[in-house]
Amino acid sequence: MNVAKVLDAKGLSCPMPVVKAKKAMDELTSGQVLEVQTTDKGAKSDLPAWAQASGHKVIDIKEENGILTFWIEKG
């Protein structure tokens, strides 16, 4: 997977991971992939809901050692 940008949102709580993901996504062009790393458990539902509402696509989600990693393709 070709990641265009990595966002470290670890330690931030809702709604900051989504707010920062939106800002990072604004810098990308359609088809590019944003990787978001967060420790906020609420992001499990928040980020996919935001991505869908914004026309983006969640490619994959991984959880390892308390860190959630999302790969979101810009729509």
From TrEMBL:
InterPro entries, per database record: TusA-like, TusA-like_sf
PROSITE patterns recorded: UPF0033
Pfam families reported in the protein's UniProt record: TusA
Residue intervals of the UPF0033 domain: 7-31
PANTHER family: SULFUR CARRIER PROTEIN YEDF-RELATED
UniProt family annotation: Belongs to the sulfur carrier protein TusA family.
The protein's name: Sulfurtransferase TusA family protein
Organism ancestry: Bacteria, Bacillati, Bacillota, Bacilli, Bacillales
